[in-house]
Amino acid sequence: MSFGCFAGNLENLTDVQDAANYTFVKGDIVSASDVQKVFTEFKITDVIHLAAESHVDRSIEGPMEFVMTNVVGTVNLLQAARETWKNNESHVFHHVSTDEVYGSLSDEGLFTEQTSYDPRSPYSASKASSDHFVRAYFHTYGLPVKLSNCSNNYGSHHFPEKLIPLMINNIREKKPLPVYGKGDNIRDWLWVEDHAKAIDVIFHNGEFGESYNIGGLNEWKNIDLVLFLCRLMDKKLGRNEGESEQLITYVTDRKGHDMRYAIDATKLARELGWKPSITFEVGLENTVDWYLANSEWVEQITSGAYRAYYENMYQNR
Ligand code: DAU
């Protein structure tokens, strides 16, 4: 079951389009009847819930979409599962969430599963709220839920409003590289396929009612990451050393910009044996190669409404 939004793209699913157990249904999780219809028609036995508005900048511009999709949409899914599943023990409802629910770290410390929730953007507040609803359905109705909270992802097919694909594309097109504030905010980056493997292991082997943090112990200051990409791409594109760095443009900071995220994934490693499979340097190089080989995908996905949105947002910074 999949619910599309502006960042969704059916072409991302061509690898599985002929699989016997795959069906695409275009719907809106904000519509309880859309959700219930899918549960009934396809006799849904398990849910891995990744449908969300995910971009912090967009949530600052318009929080209500985030309340609707992330909170109301999640409750619609929970409710449909509750009404459909008669024997909870044979089902799983896995809610995929974010480390941003824990707030912002200073120089020291890591987010653990015991860290108190302290969301600070409309996006993270909506995800924290959806996490709370998922736990409420576990405690109140016994719904068989599992949760995971992951750090920043990177990899192929990433919608180019996020830092890494945005920088790769702008470097390729010799466009300004907008670094928010001084570029000294820190994010903890994880290859998207390692995230997918973690979801798989939690879905199959995780404990009901439990949350698992997912992260690669891979903290980077934004400006260091952008410089690393510039240097890597100068080599790949046959440019002079230092050429792409000239494109770096410091722009007005994000409102309420969280300083640092860093995940302690010890529980997931200890209890379920998961660990990241590749280093950031290897993953990043693969990612750059993918974007360079798939510029048409980028062109197609960024044309139209997204381009207008991005140009407007960039001009206002
Ligand atoms: O931590 C997990 C979260 O990571 C996910 O839950 C979110 O859905 C996902 O969007 C991501 O949130 P961030 O806000 O950390 O990701 P983003 O790629 O938007 O920004 C990463 C950092 O780069 C952040 O400190 C803001 C900065 N930035 C971002 C953009 C788009 C810039 O300096 N310039 C930019 O143009």
Question: How would you characterize this protein structure?
Answer:
The chain is of the alpha/beta class. It has a single domain (10-315), classed as 3-Layer(aba) Sandwich (Rossmann fold), CATH 3.40.50. It contains eleven helices and nine strands. The chain has helices at 32-41, 56-61, 63-84, 122-141, 163-172, 192-205, 222-236, 266-272, 280-293, 295-302, 305-315, and strands at 46-49, 92-98, 145-150, 152-154, 177-180, 186-191, 211-214, 219-221, 248-251. Strands 1-2-3-7 form a four-stranded parallel β-sheet, with helices on both faces. Strand 2 (92-98), helix 4 (122-141) and strand 3 form a beta-alpha-beta unit. Helix 5 (163-172) crosses helix 9 (280-293). It is globular, with a radius of gyration of 20 Å. The structure holds 2'deoxy-thymidine-5'-diphospho-alpha-D-glucose (DAU). The site of 2'deoxy-thymidine-5'-diphospho-alpha-D-glucose has 19 residues, from helix 5 and strand 5.
**Percent in strands:** 5-15%
Mean pLDDT across the residues is 94
Structural class: alpha/beta
CATH domain class:
Alpha Beta
- Provide the spatial order of strands within the biggest beta sheet: 1-2-3-7
N/C terminus separation: 38 Å
Short characterization:
The chain is of the alpha/beta class and about 325 residues long. The protein has eleven helices and nine strands.
Notable characteristics:
single chain; 317 residues; alpha/beta; Rossmann fold; 3-stranded mixed β-sheet; 9 strands; 13% strand; binds 2'deoxy-thymidine-5'-diphospho-alpha-D-glucose
